Amino acid sequence: MKIKNSQIVSFINGTMKLSEKRLPTKLGYAITKNLGVMKNISEAYEQERIKIIDKFAEKDAEGKFLVENASYVIHDMEGYGHEITELLEIENELTLHTVGFEELEKCDSDKYDALSVQDIQVLEIMTE
């Protein structure tokens, strides 16, 4: 299955919230297994993202990135945007552990925590 870096970033960030929820065993296992499959890709993505930030972010006298309003100060937003978009669009070939939609539906019972629409969107890439 081909998955873009943007989908991997969304999955990893989205599943952080899911780690606090009571989930069916098969669903929790699939999430954990897929995070493991994505680990090397996400590490490579992060290394390249830092290189892009280093290239475009302004730095102080000590060489630390300048931050305003919780964002890096970027001197060439067009160039930065182009390179970040290119990085996010890179496709990766990987095999995900999938679950049927019935596993997500189990979260509607009192035994588990309910999934939000956002949670379901995050899990969509691993749902049959």
Can you describe this structure?
- This protein has 128 residues and is mainly alpha-helical.
- The chain has one domain.
- 55% of the residues lie in helices and 8% in strands.
- It has 5 helices and 4 strands, in the order βααββαβαα.
- A two-stranded antiparallel sheet has the order 1-4.
- A hairpin with a 2-residue loop joins strand 2 (67-68) and strand 3.
- The protein is elongated and about 55 Å long.
- It starts with a strand and ends in a 5-residue tail after the last helix.
- The model has no long low-confidence stretch (mean pLDDT 95).
Task: Choose one word for the global shape.
Answer: elongated
How many whole angstroms does the radius of gyration measure?
18 Å
Total count of domains: 1
Mean pLDDT: 95
Which tags fit this structure?
single chain, 128 residues, 55% helix, two-stranded antiparallel sheet, mainly alpha, elongated
Describe the secondary-structure layout:
Layout (H helix, E strand, L loop, with lengths): L1 E3 H14 L6 H32 L10 E2 L2 E2 L4 H13 L1 E3 L7 H5 L11 H7 L5
Antiparallel strand pairs: 1-4, 2-3
Helix pairs in contact: 1-2, 1-5, 2-3
Summed up:
The protein has 128 residues and is mostly helical.
